[in-house]
Amino acid sequence: MTTPDPDGPVARLLRYANEVHALAGRCGRQDLAEVLAACAGRWKDECTDIVVAGAQKRGKSRLLNTLVGHPDLLPVDADVATNCFLSLRRGPALTAVVHRSTDKGPVQLPITVESIPDYASMRGDAGKRRDVVSVDITLDSPLLDGLRLLDTPGVDSLTVGHRQVTVAMLQRADALLFTLSAQDQPVLRHELEFLAEAAERVQAIAFVLTKVEDSANWQSLQEENKARLRAFVTQAVADNPARAATLGPLLSAPWIPVSAKLAEAAAAKRREGRPERADSLRARSGMDALERHLRGFAEGRESARGATVVAAALSVLGALTAGAKDDLAAGSDDEGDVAARLAGVDAELTELAELTGRRRAGAVANTFLGREVAGIVAARVAEIRQPYENAIATLKTQAQLEKYMAELPESVQRSLEAVWSQIVYDVENLAKGTLNAFARDLGLDPVELAADGRAMPSLTQVQVKGDQAADDPGHVDLVRDVLPSASMGLSFGGLAAALLGPVGFILVAPAIGAAIFMGRRSLEKVQRSQAAIRGALRDQFAVVSREMTLDLERMVAAWRVSIEQTADESLLRRRKELEGRRADLKAASARSAADRRKSRQSGEDRMAAIGSLTARGHELREELAAAVAALGAGTAMPPGGS
């Protein structure tokens, strides 16, 4: 890492944060100093995390393979598995380690690089994918020096669990590469919505347009993507002007057209000893421009992280302002100043009492979340059960039933794994909406719910037993089975006697009766087996619903308790602060003239310091925003013709 310019925004940011931290300490607000220290805690991490995201089939996995020089490293034809991400970092050897989250805690499993798709892609083995949170891959690639690339599940609307995992990854990201394809449709609504969420969590964003090698009109597609993004941002800001600060930077984010295919061809030509052709293909691929952007992100990560620190410092300064104004009022020669401040504090205490009442009412309302969870689970499970009911009705022979029953447990397990992410997403949205409304009503920040990566509870596999009576050759119902068959046999036998004589009756009637008997028995056996399978499925899915509901109700209850505890702590902290201010203001009238002058001078000094630091903070924020926008600037010309 290079030493920051002592006069540059990063160095000035560090000095600025230290000054705000020191001021909070001098004001006796160690709680505020700790908030700022916690925000700056990640500053020492010297590895830049870059999340690579995009919808399925947008070319991100092949892009990553090409960047690190291993074309077959990550699965290209199948999306990254639900609840999983792939981490690429530098190491002395090519290795892969699977990280699982189990009931007994985290588990690490070294695997071969060739088996990565089995554990981390949707085409892999369902049993191996279970509980996998991430796959950590190390390789000796110079590009990864100081960089960690994170390949994430697709953010398609049909795989909502994927999207939530990717959004959660942005909490630890320094930068985002969002991939779109020149051979696919323009950016879609759900991709734009993901970008809006991403912009709230990360400032350094770049768009990568992949697969430009076979697209004659990639430039026009890129312009259409930009137009759609601009229209989306314009409408979102019109609906909520407060979003301008986070969504605006999306419009100035760079677009980098690349071709992994041309870059791979360049590497092949270089191995063949044709450096000139290799250089030409490499230049056309645009990969050099992308790599410069990645290095820019790595070298400028302080700028991206600094914006968060400035925001925290400005918040601390705002909290310190109230205490400084109290000191000014306490030092005033006009008793009305103290009375006015006291009235303000009393009003805030009254409002706080009202908030406490709303907190109790909101907590009661939150208890009904569990009932809504049960409804979500029941509806989603019913959706996947119905196709099985329909399929069972189409099975006409015992052989078909037996084959279906053999495949049924694994098929149901796959269906449940697929629907689980949708259920978790639905429940998370429900809880987030309810609990965020509760938090906003109490003046708290929105909550972050950690449902991402939640493993599905262990469920008993479907087991269906056939109709044993139907398989017992000695079990014959005379009334149900024999008499109808015999009657129909005699009828057909009479017809045969009329045509062939008595011999025809003797030969045909028993044969027809036996055939009818066996056919009827086989048909009823199939029907009974169908009923048995349907009944077993209904019972099994009922058990599954109960287990899922119980697991998710516990999760929601934990969230509810957490946010309510946070609310209680916030209300208590606020009450103590206000009561302390009221006590100080009431004591002000008994102070000597010298003490009042001292208090007034202290308040004036603090207000001056706060004003100066606030102005500097706004200037730094603008500089850092410009620095983030400039990361990776000066890239090569976009890919052109041959």
The first-to-last residue Cα distance is 38 Å
Instruction: Give me the secondary-structure category.
Output: alpha/beta
How much is the average pLDDT? 76
Low-confidence stretches: 157-162, 460-490, 634-642
Proportion of residues in extended strands: 5-15%
Number of helices: 20
Determine the fraction of residues in helical runs and give it as a percent range.
55-70%
Number of strands: 9
Characterize the biggest β-sheet.
Answer: 9 strands, mixed
What is the H/E order? Answer: HHEHEEEHHEEHEHEHHEHHHHHHHHHHH
Question: What's the arrangement of strands in the largest beta sheet?
Answer: 4-3-5-2-6-1-7-8-9
Multimeric organization: single chain
**CA radius of gyration:** 34 Å
CA-based shape: globular
Domain Dynamin N-terminal: 50-211
Organism: Streptosporangium brasiliense
Transmembrane segments: 492-518
Region (Disordered): 585-607
Can you describe what's shown?
The chain is α/β, with parallel strands linked by helices and 642 residues long. Helices cover 65% and strands 9% of the residues. It has helices at residues 9-26, 30-39, 60-68, 116-120, 126-129, 160-169, 189-199, 218-239, 244-252, 260-271, 275-285, 287-299, 301-330, 335-366, 369-393, 398-441, 468-471, 478-500, 502-588, 593-629, and strands at residues 48-54, 85-90, 95-102, 105-111, 132-139, 147-151, 175-181, 204-210, 255-257. The chain has a 9-stranded mixed sheet, sandwiched between helices. Strand 7 (175-181), helix 7 and strand 8 form a beta-alpha-beta unit. The radius of gyration is 34 Å and the shape is globular. The chain starts with 8 loop residues before the first helix and ends in a 13-residue tail after the last helix. The model is unreliable at 157-162, 460-490 and 634-642 (pLDDT under 50).
